[in-house]
Design goal:
The protein is an all-alpha fold. The protein is built from 12 helices and 4 strands, in the order H-H-H-H-E-H-E-H-H-H-H-H-E-H-E-H. Helix 4 runs parallel beside helix 11, helix 5 runs antiparallel to helix 6 and helix 11 runs antiparallel to helix 12. It is globular and about 45 Å long.
Length: 313
């Protein structure tokens, strides 16, 4: 395909991402209520999973483009914690109380574990298995912790809604359809970026910047849409879930397909430190008044250019 066609495909992918984010957030609250779980739990499970990130890392490792595999997960997390969370906080004040901070600290711990494994530039299958198992364990714990049965009286209301037209199924179908559009649009967008920039020639640095931001763009749009619709928990759930997913499931799955290694591991050290520091900064900002607002968003936004400068230095 020519560059023009890839640009057109990227525009279409962007439109799909925006449409999917709107459908996802519009129906998330109703679907979670009727399933008897919190919006946070459903968003962690669905929005927190990053199939386009997984596909990018697995493809990169299978093709031997290991710099892209490492760079993508680090760069995407830097964009998620600064741009996506910043957009969410700019659009609407995001509650960030003790319970959510615990999940964020868990995401940071997952990042530290993965960073320790990546420090020497090699992720083997043993480390990969540990990372995948860690993600499964964390998500299982979150799901159990935030599940809640329907309150008294909600059961009969739910039965009535099912009798009136299966609202649970309809809302869940819209949520899944929105997620599918987000995923498909992101994959097209990422592939377009890879084709136009000839990613294999610049591997790690373009993985840290161009591809990382492209795979995070879905969550940026989702954060904007969720904030606009007042589903503020979905912003935090998507960010925390994606941060943990990228560093555990995506990286682990890629290394299970083929061990990931690069010769110059030093190129990863500064970006890894900054990526972890950005999550720590977000947690510290939230501790002050149990929320993130526009003032915090400005600080978060400033973090991404710092990450890029450190990466390209």
């Amino acid at each position: 395909m020519s560059t023009v066609l890839w640009l057109a495909a990227m525009a279409g992918g962007t439109a799909a991402i925006v449409w999917g984010a709107e459908r996802f957030t519009e129906h998330l609250a109703d679907a979670s209520n009727r399933l008897g779980v919190t919006a946070f739990a459903l968003a962690v499970l669905l929005a927190g999973a990053e199939p386009e990130e997984l596909a990018t890392v697995v493809t990169a490792s299978a093709r031997g483009v290991d710099g892209v595999a490492f760079g993508d997960v680090i760069g995407a997390n830097a964009a998620i914690i600064t741009v996506a969370l910043g957009v969410g906080a700019w659009t609407a004040t995001i509650p960030f109380g003790p319970r959510i901070r615990r999940y964020a600290i868990g995401g940071l711990a997952a990042g530290v574990l993965a960073a320790a494994f990546m420090w020497d530039g090699v992720i083997g299958r043993v480390e990969a298995t540990v990372l995948v198992a860690s993600y499964v364990g964390v998500i299982g714990a979150i799901w159990i912790a935030v599940r809640r049965p329907p309150a008294m009286g909600e059961g009969s209301e739910l039965d009535e809604e099912l009798d009136e037209g299966g609202r649970v199924g309809i809302d869940l179908v819209w949520v899944v359809a929105g997620l599918a559009a987000l995923t498909a649009g992101s994959i097209v967008l990422v592939e377009g970026v890879r084709q136009i920039t000839d990613i294999e020639q610049t591997q790690t640095r373009l993985g840290l910047t161009v591809v990382g931001f492209a795979t995070a763009f879905e969550l940026v749009v989702l954060a904007w849409s969720a904030g606009r619709h007042g589903i503020t928990e979905a912003v935090v759930a998507g960010v925390v879930g994606s941060y943990a997913y990228n560093m555990t499931m995506s990286l682990g799955a890629g290394a299970l397909v083929a061990p990931i290694s690069i010769d110059d591991s030093a190129i990863l050290h500064a970006p890894l430190i900054v990526m972890l520091a950005l999550m720590a900064v977000a947690i510290v900002l939230a501790v002050r008044h149990d929320q993130l607002d526009r003032r915090d968003a400005i600080i978060l936004f400033a973090g991404y250019p710092i990450f890029v400068l450190v990466t390209l230095a």
